[in-house]
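JOB MANIFEST
job_type = single_chain_structure
chain_count = 1
residues = 181
[input]
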Amino acid sequence: MEWKVHGHQQLYESEWVNLEIADVELPDGQRLAHHVLRLPRETVVIAVVDEDSRVLMLWRHRFITDRWGWELPAGWVDQNEDPVAAASREVLEETGWQPGPLRPLCSFSADHGISDSQFHLYRADQATYQGPPADWTESSQVEWVPLASVRGLIELHEIDDGATLTALLFLIAFADDSDTI
C-alpha cells in the first residue's frame, strides 16, 4: 500500500512555507500530481496549568479564518534551537509568564496527508509572572482559564485551534494518570 514518489517540483518557497507537486504512483499503478505543503520549522504548543487547575490561554483573532478564539501559547522552533527552550521562550514572550519545568505531552503531524508539519506539545505545572507580554501583538487577552470550562468553550467554538484542542484534550483524558502527563 506504499505510494511511490517519482519526483518533486518546487512551486513556491519561503521562510514560512514551501509548496511542491509530487509525482506519485498509487499501489494500483495510477499516477497523479499531489500537492505537498512543507513547513520549514517545527511548532511547540504549551499548556501551563496552575495549582487551581487553570490553563494559561490567549484570546486572539486569526485573520485567515476571520475568527476569535482561545489558544495555548505556541510558536516556531528556531534553527538549532532546542524545542523545550523554544517552548519556554514562547510562553514568556506571548504571556509574560515564565513557565516552570516543561514535560512533553506528545508530538504529532497536523495533516500528514498533505503536509509535513510537526507539533510538539508540552506541559508546565507552574509559572512565575514576569510582566506584560513582550509580544503584545499575539493576543487581545491573556487569562487563566479553568480546565473544567474547556469542554463548554469547545462546544461554543471558542476553542477550535487543532494544536490547542489536542493538548487540552490530552490533559483532560489523562488527568488522573500523573505518570502520563
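[summary]
The longest helix spans residues 83-95.
DSSP finds three helices and twelve strands in the chain.
exit_status = 0
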